[in-house]
Structures are given as C-alpha cells and as structure tokens.
Amino acid sequence: MSATIDIDNLRVGMFIHLDLGWWAHPFALSSFLLTSPEQIATIRGLGLKRLRWSPEKSKLPEAAAFQTSTLTPGTPSELQEAVAAADAAAAAAAEAAAKTEAARRRAALAAQREADRICAEQYAEAGQAWKIASDQVQSLPQAARETGEALTRALLDKMMIEGELCIRVLADAGGDRNGAHALNVAVISLLMGRVFGFSEAEMMDLGLGALMHDIGKLEIPERLRLPDGLFTAAENNQYREHVAHGIAHGQRMGLSPGAMSVIAQHHEMADGSGFPARLNGDRMNAPARIVALVNRYDNLCNPAVASHALTPHEALSLIFAQAKSKFDATMLNAFIRMMGVYPPGSMVQLTDDRYATVVSVNSSRPLKPRVLVCDAAVPVDEALLLNLEEVTDLGIRRSLKPSQLPVAVQNYLAPRQRVVYFFEPALTGVVAAPAGPSGTTTREELAA
C-alpha cells in the first residue's frame, strides 16, 4: 500500500516513489529508500509538491537498546585443564572464523544480488522509455526525439562516473526483441565512446543514433524486420529499405546530423561492402563505425532464429577471424579489449573442469571476469560468484555452447535464450573461493 505525503514532510528511512520518467531525475531507480538528507534536498529541487511513499517498506528510525556483557575467564590450576581450555579456545576460534567467512560470503552474495536487482530495474525503466519513443515516432516525431534524448542523457548521467564500469549480462524475461536490440547497441556503443573519450555532444549523437538506428523498420512488414538468411532477393531489397525509412523518420524528428549519420551508415562496412551507399571506412563517421560493429555483434548473438545464435565468445571470434576487414581495426581491437575474450553471457569451462557462465566483465580488466560456477554441492540460490581477478590459480579453459553442457549443468546455470547487456559500477569484494586442482589460466586465441 502506498500513500501520498507533502514534500516538506520527507524523512530519512521512507521508501518513496518518484512518478517521473527515469530520465527526469538523477537517482538510480524511481522507487527507493531515503538514506540521507542530501537525497531529500535533491528531491525537493525537482519541483514536486507531494509524492507517494510505502510505509510498509520504510525503515524509520526507532529507539534501540544495546546491552553489553563482560566475560571473565577462569584460571585453571591444572596443566590438563589448561590444555583442554586451549583446545576449546582454538576450536571456538576456528568456528568463529568459519562463521565470519560464511557471513562475509552471504554479505557479498547479497550485495551482488542487490546489484543484479538495481541493474535489472534500471534496464526495465530504460526499455519502457525506448518503447515510448518508438511508439511516438510516426505520430509525434518531435516528442519521440525528446524522449530519446532524455533517455540518452539519463544513460550518460549514470555512465559518466568516476571509477570503473562493469558490462553485465541480464536474465532476459523475453520482452520486446527490437527494444532489447536497440538498448544493447546503445549501451555497448556508449561504453565504446567512453573508451575513446568522446565529447558530450558526440556521446549524445552516438547514443541517440544507436537507440534509433533501426527505427525505419517500423515501415516494413514485421516478418522482414529480422533477416533470417532465407529472404528472397525482393524481400532482401525491401529489408534494406529500412535505412532510407529511418533517415526519413530522423528528419521528421529533427535529429542532429551526427545521430542521422548513425542511422544512415549503421549497415555500411569499412571495406565498402555494406549498404545502402557502399561507403568505406574513410567516409563513415566515428559513431557510425562503432554502431556498425556493435550492431553486427548483437545480431550474431540474438538472431531471428534462436537456434542460429552464436555465443558471445563465438560471435567475437567470428568477427575477428572472418570479418576484420569489414570494421575499423582500431575500434575492433578496442571492442575486443572492452568485452574480453569471453564476453558476458559466455558459457565456459574453468581450468579445474567446473562449468560456469560469465556474469560480468570489468571493462579495464576484461581477461578476469566474474563467473557464476556450477557446483553440485552448493544450492543454486547460493551459487558461487567468483572474481577470477582474485582467484589467481583459476582461469578459463574454453568456451562452450549451451547445448554442449551436461543436462544437470544446463539446469543449474540456466543459459539465457537472449543476451541482454547493461552496465554497473565495478563491485569490490565479490565472493572468491578456492580454486580446483588446476593451475594457471589458459585462453583460446580469438582466431581459433
């Protein structure tokens, strides 16, 4: 149950709901617990007079009593008693250490799950904003631009922070495929722009162009929006017309020239083999070169026919081995460094023979991802989250398709049907556990 409250009566400990678009405030989520007076001051600056809050979710301060006790150790007079006491103390210390370690692990897992929840909620709000913009394109083009700009600005505000970011794969509930593709391309493209030090204006063009790069598909039949390799020549030509339709929509929306170039060039290739204008890399602008690469990667991971999907590792390897000439070499190398040899979503076997799924990659240390490990001795809801940066004697041996995993492992790790990416601040203190019997990390070459 929720109630409304005057903005002047806000208190730390209230669980409040901002009935605003995700882009219209600076907080990570639209519903959250107030934990500081600074948050309250920020909310009062939004111009609201009243807002909703949930008393049952709130944690208002209450008086608490604390008791202390003093333990007075005995003084044994016999050697045997002293030895027994020492043994008992050692056992108690070991038990206390085990409890402390278990508590640390539980706390780390709880922090990870909370990060999962926040990341998923942010993604859901971003997806809702994209759907609003998409629905506005044909009837309210200027409103679509404003919504898209607000979403891009919100992504940038939450992304352009001090410190490192992790690229995270989310469990996908199967929502709108077009929206998931647009957000995947936008998020990864913006992270690439961050790597290259793009200016604020360039980041806005890159993000908005990436969000709207396929908007022309609104004008072609739904069955032609996702090429499956079985199109006739006529159907393929009709599919390619989505670029021209996208340019027309962009003009009606009043998009900037930079964002327009992304829409116009996202299917061009550095070797001149793309469409519609067969531009080479020298004639493509930098944001468009990034989006062309990320668009290809996501289409390999999330094709129209699910059985044709490549794992993230396979997609990266295929691009590197067979399509290097089609993409800007500098950007392709940066993309591989950022995503890692085993991008989030990859199913892997560790050097101790256990199976795992790559959960997230720190963009500055991509060869040491965080993995969720299948261990029959550990319940699924307490599955080990290992930070391979902290487990020095454990690494990744190889990447696998989900179908190559034993059935029990598939049931445990629940491979995702669709690879959905978002970002989060890099976490510290992620659970580390002892490695198995194997030693140093071995890595497959990208060209393999």
Structural commentary:
- The chain has 448 residues and is of the alpha+beta class.
- It has three domains: 55 residues; 232 residues, Hypothetical protein af1432; 79 residues, no CATH class.
- Helices cover 42% and strands 11% of the residues.
- It is built from twelve helices and eleven strands.
- The strands form two sheets. Strands 5, 6, 7, 8, 9, 10 and 11 form a seven-stranded antiparallel β-sheet that branches.
- The N and C termini lie far apart (56 Å).
Number of separate structural domains: 3
- Whole-number average pLDDT? 85
Could you state the order of secondary-structure elements as H and E? Answer: EEEHEHHEHHHHHHHHEEEEEHE
**pLDDT < 50 runs, ≥5 residues:** 63-76, 429-448
Based on the structure given, which CATH architecture of the largest domain is correct?
Orthogonal Bundle
DSSP helix fraction: 40-55%
Shape from CA axes? globular
What tags apply to this protein structure?
448 residues, alpha+beta, Hypothetical protein af1432, 3 domains, 7-stranded antiparallel β-sheet, 12 helices, globular, disordered C terminus
Task: Summarize it.
By secondary structure, the protein is α+β, with helices and mostly antiparallel strands.
